[in-house]
Sequence to fold (463 residues):
Amino acid sequence: MIPAAPTADNRPPSVDRALGWPAMQALVASHGRALVLDCLREALDDWRAGQLADAPALLLAVQQRIERRLAPSLTPVFNMTGTVLHTNLGRAPLPPEAIAAIAAVAAGASNLEYDLQDAARGDRDSHVEAWICRLTGAEAATVVNNNAAAVLLVLNALAARREVLVSRGELIEIGGSFRLPDIMARAGCKLREVGTTNRTHPRDYAEAIGPRTALLLKAHTSNYQVQGFTSSLDEAQLVEIARAHHLPVVVDLGSGSLIDMQALGLPAEPVVREVLAAGVDVVTFSGDKLLGGPQAGIIAGSAELIGKIRRSPLKRALRCDKLTLAALEAVLRLYADPQTLVQRVPTLRLLTRRQEQIRQGAEALLPALQAWAGEDFVVDLCEVHSQIGSGSLPLETLPSAALRLRSRNGNRRSRSRELRQLAERLRGLPYPVIGRIAEDSLLLDCRCVEDTRLLAEQWQVPQ
Ligand SMILES: *Cc1c(COP(=O)(O)O)cnc(C)c1O
Fold:
């Protein structure tokens, strides 16, 4: 089939000659000429660089390059980091109802912007707006790509070329790329800081209000807490000042929640309905944080202001696609039944799992993990604290259970290297496993692993 011996002077074959080999032709038949040609050229470069020296090696290199090229880049992983809403790992897992809704509209045409009753042009927000209003008490609502987009759109639509008042204690940065002062500048607004980092009083706002003021903005300081000698205004106080000057109040809730998290035994988080009931005109919050839906930014509030926001040309650029809206509608529908909600929305279910239940899952996984990790490592169970993540207070943690891997090596430096290599092996599995290294151990928090079977199976594969 292929010439077994290297060419006499060990020079690579020409592209045409190699492409003519029957084995290469077989690859062309299954993958197409363009891809094989591309990979062949790269493999021939490897030959010239001295990394290959014969035809079988060339063929293997081409095959491997094709495989790598065709392997999906975006792929499911096991989130064993202990952070439930992990932005880098895709945040909220979707319920089956949302996945079915995505599949139902993905394959063909849908009434995305089509009013079936009147055979007229419809509005894509219509599929979710009534649900958001019912669940939050808002008069109107609209949805965009994510919460950062929601804040950008609201500021641009309501305050371009004017001033926005924000407390110095709320100039937040979330996840490295969302910085309120930057968003403000991009929205074309002038940031006017009021008060100080730790204390802001009603008179600070009142004194800063002038003819160029467009609105008062409050940002939920979701990923940090100012402690000690502090003072800030709650929504009602802010509303009182704004009303006196006929200005709107906008609150960026970040996570926000449609239900009372404390009733589920979780740390308190502002409830959207309560914030709006305090008189706030517009709120923004994420679809894929505590709500447990797809990535989206929800804007809810007064009909007049939402109308203005919806008419902004920026809305068109920031709007959601049909897949997101299908998933969001399906998740919002689950909120109709508070009795089954927590069990049916995976984010809420994972956040409320009992430590004992998580520990049982961890225990069931231990033998497979020990066998897979090998004799060089000790595997045991330990108590850990999971985090909600995505801007919920990092100080508030949930008791959980983890599989702990420690190296038996006597040398500290070697132990640390071995742990890093083990973490790399876990990331290299068909379903990559992402844990976290803490001091002298690699921790795999089992809170987010409800189905242990698939995980155990890939640990049983002989390595
Ligand atoms: C998370 C967060 C954002 C950004 O939301 P995305 O959905 O990630 O765009 C903005 N503001 C606050 C307060 C947040 O917590």
